[in-house]
Design goal:
334 residues, TIM Barrel, 3 domains, 5-stranded mixed sheet, 5 strands, 57% helix
């Protein structure tokens, strides 16, 4: 069904996908297995004993698109039995409660991790703290309410506020010159973008460069389509030289994606202010800070991004863009 939506405008592709979906919905084992082979999907055991896991996913509270319940349902449909859900800087009790309750209902083992990034000699260290050893949802929520844990999460909330301010500073910097530059370069009529509209687009998530790139792209996209339609309407009656020029212009417009907008029009060296204490600690200090939180079993994972801050953010955006492209290219039944 996702692929049917993504194939908007390609009627033949949508009809073929709708046919496959109707065939799969019959529930007949022979037809299901044929669809699994066609889409390179594994057949899951009816005993629900497969070793399928994903230890790093996000819901809508960070940079994901799915609610906690939707995330669990999606994992169940894919046959995933073990799920690691990672939150940036803080965990909201209401989100954790929904996630763990849905996981218990669907029989999925979920662990919640908290990822923080710290500066280290002009590099970034990403650390994921995954507390373990809980008896269930109530036990985990009581853990979040303990003073030492609440103090740690309060430090994380300060980092979230800092990141929001930094992303808004990037948006204001973009507004200062780049709408005019984009209009002149591509013949568009893009207007300045509003802080409030951007925050609304983020929803319950945490404002990030990925959100900002997508927001700017969605604001520019209608103008790109209008310009492309205008050139296409003039193409047949244009001279051969103009047709070549129109074709080159359309190709350039098609290449103006979120990653390109970031590369050309966002100054990633901008920081709104000095980072909060949690964002300035070295990895050893952050690890000690987490160990102050009372919990019998802990896991601490460390990743060093061996690049500068701006390169790291670009790398993160490239990874997101690649994932989106892969999702568009990979056919799926559900």
């Amino acid at each position: 069904m996702k692929e049917i939506v993504r194939a908007g405008g390609d009627i033949q592709r949508q009809l073929a996908l709708a046919h496959d979906f109707r065939e799969a919905s019959s529930g007949k084992a022979r037809l299901i297995r044929r669809q699994l082979r066609k889409y390179n999907l594994l057949e899951m055991s009816e005993n629900w004993n497969q070793l399928a896991f994903d230890h790093h996913v996000h819901d809508a509270s960070t940079k994901g698109r799915k609610s906690p319940t939707h995330l669990i349902m999606d994992a169940w449909i894919k046959g995933i039995r073990f799920l690691g859900v990672v939150y940036y800087n803080e965990v909201k009790p209401e989100g954790a409660s929904e996630l763990l309750e849905a996981a218990a209902i669907m029989g999925i083992d979920v662990r919640i991790g908290i990822e923080v990034s710290a500066r280290l000699r002009k590099k970034y260290v990403d650390l994921i703290w995954t507390p373990r050893g809980f008896l269930g949802r109530k036990d985990f929520l009581e853990f979040l309410a303990e003073p030492a844990v609440e103090s740690f999460l309060a430090s994380g909330r300060a980092v979230v506020e800092y990141e929001t301010a930094r992303v808004l500073a990037l948006l204001r910097s973009f507004n200062s010159t780049h709408p005019l530059a984009i209009n002149e370069a591509y013949g568009l009529t893009v207007q300045e973008l509003e802080d409030a509209e951007f925050i609304e687009s983020v929803g319950s998530g945490q404002a990030s460069l990925v959100h900002l790139a997508e927001f700017i792209y969605q604001a520019v996209l209608p103008h790109l389509r209008t310009k492309a339609e205008e050139l296409a309407a003039r193409f047949e009656s244009a001279s051969p030289e103009e047709q070549v020029r129109f074709g080159n212009t359309i190709e350039t417009l098609e290449g103006l994606d979120p990653e390109t907008l970031v590369e050309r029009y966002l100054d990633l060296t901008i920081d709104s202010a000095e980072p909060p204490p949690l964002g300035r600690r070295w990895s050893t200090q952050l690890r000690q800070r987490s160990l102050e939180a009372p919990n019998g079993a802990r896991s601490w994972l460390t990743r060093l991004r061996d690049v500068s801050g701006s390169q790291a953010r670009r790398g993160s955006l490239r990874a997101e863009a690649a994932q989106r492209a892969a999702r568009r290219r990979t056919p799926r039944v559900a």
